[in-house]
Structure formats: C-alpha cells, structure tokens
Amino acid sequence: MGIKEFLKRNRMIRKIGKKINILSQFRQDAFDFSSHYIEEAEKNGDFRYSIMLLVHSLEKGMCFKNPRPFGLDKVNELIRLLNQYSEAQVDEFEYQLGVSALFAWIGFFEKHGWQNEEEYRKVKKFLSDKTQNSNIVAGCKEYIPMEADPVLYEEMYLSRHSVRDYQEKKINLLDVQFALKCFVETPTACNRQMCRVYYIQNQEVTDLLNNVVIGIPGFNKKTVQYFVITYDIASFAYSGERQQGLFNAGLCTMNFVNGLHAKGIGSCCLQWSNKRKEDEKVRTKLGLRDSERIGIIIGAGYYLERNIIPCSVRRNAEDVFKIV
Questions:
Q1: Crossing angle for the helix pair 93-111 and 72-82, nearest 10 degrees?
Q2: What is the rounded distance in angstroms from the CA atom of residue 256 to the CA atom of residue 319?
Q3: What mean pLDDT do residues 110-114 have?
Q4: pTM (2 d.p.)
C-alpha cells in the first residue's frame, strides 16, 4: 500500500486534511470577497452596483405612506457616480437607471412641494441637459395582485422533477425566453441583479464541463446541454453579505428551471463545488469578469416522453415547519 493510499484510509488523518482544506478554501473566499466587493469595484471604475443600491434606496423612500424630504445625501452621491461616466458609457443600463431615478425623485419632490430643498436644485441642474429613457423608468408604481389560478400554478410547480436524460434536440432559444423572464423577475438583494445565465454551445466548454462537473455521472452526456448561473462579488457591500451570492443565484436558478419546465424543458441542478484550479479554468474559458463566480450548473434538455427518476422521498410538511 502506497503512502497516499495509507493516508486516505486513516480516518483521523483524512479528517484533519479535510479541516485544513476547509479553512484554506474559506480563507481564499475571504480574500476574493475583500478584493472585489463594492468599494474595491468603485476604485477600479466599476460603479454599476453602487448606482443600483442608491436607486433602490431612493425608490423605497418614494413608497412610504407618510413621506418627508429624503435621500438628500444619496442624490448627491448618485450624481457623483454618474459624473464618472464618459460620453461613450452613458447608454449603459446603470447610468440610464440612475438618471431615471433622479427624474423620479425630482417629480416626487415637486408633487409634495419640496422644491426649496438645496439638493432639489442641484439635481434639477444636473438633469437640465438629460433626457429620460422611456424604456427605463425608475420610481414607484401601484401594484394590484392578480387573481391567479392556484390549481394551475400548483399543477405546474409540483409536476417538475429533476431529470438527467433528454431528447437529442438542441434547445430552441425561443423556448428559453420565458425562463429568462422568470430569471430577471427574481427578487435579488436590493434589486442589484448580480446573477447571469450562460447557455453553453461551445463544444470545447461542453467537453470541459462534462469532465469536471461533480454529479455528472448518471447524465446522458450525448444529450445534456448546460446553463451556467453566476453571481458578481462586486455587488456586495460588506462582510454580512458574504453569503448573498449563492443565495441570490439559487433564487434565480429556481425561477429559471421552473420557466424551462413550463416550456417542456427538463433540467437538473448541479452544485459547483470544484477545486479552485478547475473553477479558475472554467471561469477563464467562459470569459467571466474577475469578480464573477460560478454558482450553479444546470443540465437541461427537452423531456423524453417517459423518464426514470429517483423517488427522492420528501419529508412531511410538518417536519420542516415550526411556529415560534
């Protein structure tokens, strides 16, 4: 027996090795987070998520039942960030969103007769040479819940099961559009929308995923097609948000796979728990930003007429619910 095999079979040594690996990986995660979080992103000229945070805060202020002048510091900060954009960047989503939020803030102040505020005049001056994008309208709006058919929703939602074999048919992008709508409508932390979907069609990347994704045994590699869900560390503001990436990626993923299911596309979510070298290799192949991380891999394809799946017995509802 070789020394490596001996160490693997020794439970105590294996346990110590796992603990060392856990501490090492968390230390690397902490380094990555502190290197790319929102303030570091600003230092590197990336203002996207700082703008979206400010916009969300201003929009919430417009929703209060008994409002008073608000957001005075925030509009100054928003103007500062928008002034960092060059002429070539003013068509970017975040810039247009920030401008729209300022227009909404001005309108809200005028509605309540708060034009005497100094910040109102500053914002008015900033917007004097700006036009509002009619496709990006920030602010607040009335929401009236629709009367959805609970039976229809229940049938669709509870009929989905993870499958690992699919038709030999390429997924039509038109059939993905509804799932993408579900994805972008997913609530994310302060509406920062830090998650992205990558549909893998490059054969080299597909082969790489076939070789490195943990949990791929049991899939029909000839028919599986991959979607990669990512999140951006640059969107997070402080240490307490260190778990938000996977949390938001999970929310978006669930909406996405339910959207696929509604269009006859089966799927199975695969955890991305690979070693750092493999993670970096795949991120490089995908061309991700330095601050972008892989959250979940989705194997997908059109349903077969009949599928053999694990029973995956669930707990009773009362086992997971507690009134405190």
A1: 150
A2: 27
A3: 95
A4: 0.92
